[in-house]
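Submission checklist for the structure archive. All mandatory fields must be present; incomplete records are returned to the submitter.

[x] Identifier: Glutamate decarboxylase 2
[x] Organism: Phrynocephalus forsythii
[x] Residue count: 588
[x] Sequence attached
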Amino acid sequence: MAATPGAGFWPFGSEEGAGDPENHPGPAKAWCQAAHKFTGGISTKLCALLYGDGEKPMETGATKEEQKPASRKAACTCNKKPCGCQKEDVNYTFLHSSDLLPNSEGETATLAFLQDVVDILLQYLVKNFDRSTKVIDFHYPNELLQEYNWELADQPQTLEEILLNCRTALKYAIKTGHPRYFNQLSTGLDMVGLAADWLTSTANTNMFTYEIAPVFVLLEYVTLRKMREIIGWTGGAGDGIFSPGGAISNMYAMLIARFKMFPEVKEKGMAAIPRLVAFTSEHSHFSVKKGAAALGIGTDSVILIRCDERGKMIPSDLERRIVEAKQKGFVPFLVSATAGTTVYGAFDPLIAIADICKKYKIWMHVDGAWGGGLLMSRKHRWKLNGVERANSVTWNPHKMMGVPLQCSALLVREEGLMQSCNQMHASYLFQQDKHYDLSYDTGDKALQCGRHVDVFKLWLMWRAKGSIGFEAHIDKCLELAEYLYNKIKNREGFEMVFDGKPQHTNVCFWYVPPSLRIMEDNEERMNRLSKVAPVIKARMMECGSTMVSYQPLGDKVNFFRMVISNPAAAHQDIDFLIEEIERLGQDL
């Protein structure tokens, strides 16, 4: 049923009884009391919407009959509080999207429909943070394909069916904001960032010119300048752009570095220039090679530099490989250092790398997609010492800073270079006789024409938290990682992949079941150990209790890589993860 008073949803028998915070037990009571304090009458509806019998939020989409939206009372746009307007009944059974705005008679149905969508979202949001709910309701692909009809048809569905689709999609979505979701570098769900995303979608505009995105273009200018200041470039000078993820930001850096050295490549292509080579660590992100492939440089032209036991690039090996490449007649044009590698969370020695790049006149890029957020922390930013000497930096606020996906910035120290590299002077967009400052028409420096507004959620979160709020979040995540490390480093059944405290929130370890603890360290043991993490991960997903990633690396068989960027995570969730791994792996 639709989660509204008009749909007969109230779990306590009456609208009045459902809204009373005293009628809710345990955590639900505490939540509703807080909601009632700050929202007054709004909490009457919200508490009843979010909580059914007992403390646990109701499962959405249990059956199609339970989910079916019935008629509801339409929302009102008047400014009177309380509102005494007569409400119309809206029945979705016979309505389609064509009955919504911009249909001239669509206002009533639109307001009712969007209110029901918000109700679905609110249910999902509260469940996201509830530790008693599953992180994932896992089904195999063939099961989901058979259980629901996902096919696209010629005829439109009713709005009743559309709301059912919304509930079904969220029912099987991964709760990435759940306190026990540790699977990816991007976790958590910030409420201000979410609100900003809603507003961005409502504005539904493009970032290529000031005339169609005036506020968003200015916010991008302000935010990128602030990020360049934090990197350490005087006065925030330079350039930059928000791109669709760190892989594209890294490719932008490679593109601009090539143009800086050989500007003729823009018109004449790779055949007009010498054989280029780039350098990055063997632990760097795969996007460096992918960018080389996309730009016609070739993956064979990306030379991997050895790392030490903690995953940091070895500067002496970098210089040796640069000299070798030059002796072969190749032209070194880019070194991509990493600030926070994907698996180990390692920070390359940027000062030493900067010295080498200066010596050989090579563009220095820092991939700080994962580790760039540590620049916000006075306690941890030293790990990126030397970043201010880079020519370009990738920084993904959607990772360590908790901004909703996607939000990735490429920052460039030299102003105007990105524009020169990418501009095509499309006269139907970038007319030179406009009546405002054309420097705010930023679209011609991007590879894309259509570019999503990614800046607003970061800007609004920054306004809401301040820099100190981001700092507190980052410090907390690093502290939780150290807490995990201290809990397992000497715990029976756990072995660390490398010695020493984590550099970032990455904590890498093996779980060794009792059956393997007495075995000699030989090939058979390694083969059996390599199967442990995948089985435990599969069991985690099937029971829905938590999620954490695993992978092999080099000569090391599958191990768990725990990362923490979720602001909802706490010590109890770290304790739970340890005990859950033990529970699920004891019999292996």
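[x] Structure attached
Curator remark: The first strand starts at residue 72 and ends at 73. The first helix runs from residue 15 to 19.
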